[in-house]
Amino acid sequence: MSSYGAGPTCLPPVTLILGGARSGKSRYAERLVASTANCGTYCATAEAGDAEMAERITAHRARRGLFWHTVETPLALVQAIADEARGERPLLIDCLTLWLSNLFFAGKQPDAEAAALCNALREAAGPVVLVSNEVGMGLVPETPLGRRFRDAAGRLNQDVAALADRVVFVAAGLPLVLKEGRA
């Protein structure tokens, strides 16, 4: 795969942005796309399951502005990549962790869905920037479901990071490049 765009600020085919909750990873990803293109597609995976989450989604929408075309896809991420990835309009997926949670609640097989996601990323017609939480740095969840989710999130992040051209970890709003180029 080749890089999209021109000049020193072009996006590689796949970029993964990792970080903890409220680390600044979404804002960093938004700025990254905005610095390389005239417009972008924002693929949002969140669903408003309660009033607090609805407020968060509203705040995210308001922050995005006219630069972004928004596609809300809590489950059909693979299809969204096929439909929306374009060389002239980078695709930002925010976030893989919420998508994974949605898969769990829908009774889907996370490992099979992750494999399909990785295939879609390899075939994407334009650059894709993915945001995901790094959930393995905290306490071990006390419930079996929590542990299964944490383990699935860890595997998903590893799979996407392995195929990504760039991986960035964000903490306190500060980016740390973990990988640049295919390894």
Please describe what this structure looks like.
- The longest helix is centred in the last third of the chain and has 20 residues, at 144-163.
- Helices cover 42% and strands 21% of the residues.
- The chain has helices spanning 25-34, 51-64, 77-84, 96-105, 110-123, 144-163; strands at 14-19, 40-44, 68-72, 91-94, 128-133, 166-171, 174-180.
- The radius of gyration is 15 Å and the shape is globular.
- The protein contains six helices and seven strands.
- It has 183 residues and is α/β, with parallel strands linked by helices.
- Strands 3-2-4-5-1-6-7 form a seven-stranded mixed sheet, sandwiched between helices.
- The two termini are 14 Å apart.
How is the topology of this model organized?
Layout: E1 14-19, H1 25-34, E2 40-44, H2 51-64, E3 68-72, H3 77-84, E4 91-94, H4 96-105, H5 110-123, E5 128-133, H6 144-163, E6 166-171, E7 174-180
Helix pairs in contact: 3-5, 4-6, 5-6
Main attributes?
183 residues, alpha/beta, 7-stranded mixed beta sheet, 6 helices, 21% strand, globular, disordered N terminus
Radius of gyration: 15 Å
Q: What proportion of the residues form beta strands (DSSP E)?
A: 15-25%
Quick one: biggest sheet?
7 strands, mixed
The SSE order reads EHEHEHEHHEHEE
Helix content: 40-55%
Strand order of the largest sheet: 3-2-4-5-1-6-7
- Name the shape in a single word: globular
Terminal Cα separation, in Å? 14 Å
